[in-house]
Structure formats: structure tokens, C-alpha cells
Design brief:
Blueprint: H1 2-11, H2 28-41, H3 50-67, H4 73-84, H5 92-101, H6 118-121
Amino acid sequence: MKVALLSAALLGSPLAVPVSDRVPHLNVESLCKATVADDKANGIVLGQSLEQCMSDETDAQQQLVALWPANAGPVRDSCEAEVASVAYAQSYVDLLSCIQAAGVTNPPPAAPLKGASKNRNAK
């Protein structure tokens, strides 16, 4: 066992890749504050308020809590890395969009089986 662990350590390949079982914590308040400030600085009159931005982020986070366990580790890891790549612009809305774009969030319903039926074939 020690030899296997040592070999894995020397080769640089982890024995197990950790996958988060819960939605990552993102600092969306700073993103929302920056967005509101940018809107004001650019003279956007009908920009999103801080409250609206935070509400959108909270709604997205709640949707992610339901979707997170249904998605495979590589999808979650990829989307989490994409969102985390810009430290000052982390967003649950972006993370939700990434998960949805992966197409795993709504698996197609199982089609009913259409095998031979005793009643139908008894004629």
C-alpha cells in the first residue's frame, strides 16, 4: 500500500480527485456592488439595483442547490473553474448558466417501453 501511495505521489497523479458535493461559496455582493457602480459611472439610468442583483444571485444559488447533485463531477469542476477564473466577477447566475449549458440539468424523461403485449397479441 505504501508503495502505491509513494508511486502515485512521485508520478504526480492523485489517487482520487476531490469533487465538491455542495455549491461553492461565491462573493456575489462585491460583484453586485461593482455592477451598480459601473452602471452609475456609465450613466445607465435603468441599471439593475443592488437589491435586484442580489435577488437574482440568491435565486440562482437556490436553483444550483437543487441541480448540483444531479450533475457529474467533471461538469461541476469545469463550471466552477470557469466562474472562479475571474476573482472579482464570481456569479451564481454564471455558474447556473454553465451547468445548464452542459445539458445535464434536465435529462429527458424515460420513454415508455413498447414491447410485445399479451393482450394486444392475443387477437
